[in-house]
C-alpha cells in the first residue's frame, strides 16, 4: 500500500471548478515556516478520503481562492486535520474562515492513545495502517516556484490517510468514553486559534499562574 502511487492532482491558485470532495474533507497546509503571522502559505492539500489527493499550489503573489474559501465556509463540510491548531490559523489568515465542524487527529490521539506520547502523523499511520510514512520533505523549501516529485508525494501523504486514522481513533474514543471531550476540544479550536493570533499563543490561560 505504501509503495502504490495514489492519484495526485496538482492545481494552481485555487481548486478547479466543479470538484466535489464530499462532506468530510482532509486538509493540510505547507508553509514557509511555523509562524502563521510571518510565514506564507505555499500549498493546500485536500483529500475526500477516496485515495486521491488534490494539491493547490499558492503563488508568491497569492490570488484570491474563492472555491477553496467556499469549501472552508461550507457549514455542511467537516474538515479533518492533523494538528488543526496550526492549519486553522494559516487557512483563516490566507484563504478564509472555517465554518463547519473540525476534527483533529492529533487531539483525538492524545485523548485516546494515553499509552504513548507519540502522536505524530507518521506514528498514527504506522500504528493504524501498518506502514511507515516518510517525513523527509517536511522541512523543505515549499516556496519554490515548482514542487519536486518528492514534495508532491509527501504533501499528498499528509492528507491521504486521515479518514482511515480518524475512523480508528473514533472507535478508541468511543471505547474509552472520551468522545464528548474530544468533540468539545475540536469545537474550541477556533477560539484557541484566535487566542494564538492575538498574542496568547504561549500563555496557558487555564493555569493558576
Ligand atoms: Mn504537511
Q: Could you describe the 3D structure shown?
A:
The chain contains seven helices and six strands, in the order ββββαβαβααααα. The protein has a six-stranded mixed β-sheet with strand order 1-4-3-2-5-6. Helix 2 packs across helix 7 (179-200) and helix 3 (105-112) runs parallel beside helix 6 (162-176). The chain has helices at 66-72, 84-94, 105-112, 121-129, 149-160, 162-176, 179-200; strands spanning 8-12, 24-31, 41-47, 53-57, 78-81, 102-104. Strand 5, helix 2 and strand 6 form a beta-alpha-beta unit. 40% of the residues lie in helices and 15% in strands. The protein is of the alpha/beta class and 209 residues long. The chain has a single domain (8-200), classed as 2-Layer Sandwich (Nucleotidyltransferase, domain 5), CATH 3.30.420. It binds manganese (II) ion (MN). Manganese (II) ion (MN) binds next to strand 2.
- Quickly give the CATH architecture: 2-Layer Sandwich
> What is the CATH H-level superfamily?
Ribonuclease H-like superfamily/Ribonuclease H
Name the helicity range: 40-55%
What is the succession of H and E elements? EEEEHEHEHHHHH
**Outline type:** globular
Task: Give the neighbour order of strands across the main sheet.
Answer: 1-4-3-2-5-6
For the record, give the distance between the C-alpha atoms at the N and C termini, rounded to a whole number.
49 Å
Output the radius of gyration.
17 Å
Coarse structural class:
alpha/beta
The amount of beta strand, in percent, is 15-25%
The small molecules bound here are: manganese (II) ion
Mean pLDDT: 95
Unreliable runs: none
Query: According to CATH, what is the class?
Result: Alpha Beta
| Largest sheet, strands/sense/barrel | 6 strands, mixed
Q: State the helix count.
A: 7
Number of strand segments = 6
CATH T-level topology: Nucleotidyltransferase, domain 5
How many individual domains?
1
Amino acid at each position: 500500500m505504501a509503495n502504490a502511487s495514489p492519484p495526485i492532482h496538482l492545481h494552481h491558485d485555487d481548486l478547479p471548478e466543479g470538484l466535489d470532495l464530499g462532506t468530510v474533507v482532509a486538509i493540510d497546509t505547507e508553509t514557509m515556516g511555523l509562524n502563521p503571522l510571518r510565514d506564507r502559505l505555499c500549498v493546500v492539500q485536500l483529500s475526500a478520503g477516496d485515495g486521491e489527493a488534490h494539491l493547490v499550489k499558492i503563488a508568491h503573489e497569492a490570488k484570491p481562492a474563492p472555491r477553496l474559501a467556499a469549501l472552508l465556509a461550507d457549514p455542511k463540510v467537516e474538515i479533518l486535520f492533523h494538528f488543526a491548531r496550526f492549519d486553522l490559523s494559516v487557512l483563516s489568515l490566507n484563504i478564509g474562515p472555517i465554518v463547519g465542524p473540525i476534527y483533529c487527529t492529533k487531539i483525538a490521539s492524545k485523548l485516546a492513545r494515553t499509552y504513548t506520547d507519540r502522536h505524530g502523523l507518521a506514528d498514527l499511520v504506522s500504528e493504524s495502517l501498518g506502514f511507515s510514512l516518510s517525513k523527509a520533505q517536511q522541512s523543505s523549501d515549499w516556496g519554490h516556484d515548482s514542487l519536486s516529485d518528492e514534495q508532491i508525494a509527501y504533501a499528498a501523504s499528509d492528507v491521504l490517510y486521515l479518514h482511515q486514522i480518524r475512523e480508528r481513533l473514533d472507535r478508541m474514543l468511543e471505547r474509552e468514553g472520551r468522545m464528548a471531550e474530544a468533540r468539545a476540544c475540536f469545537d474550541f479550536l477556533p477560539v484557541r486559534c484566535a487566542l494564538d493570533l492575538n498574542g496568547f499563543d504561549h500563555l496557558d490561560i487555564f493555569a493558576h499562574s
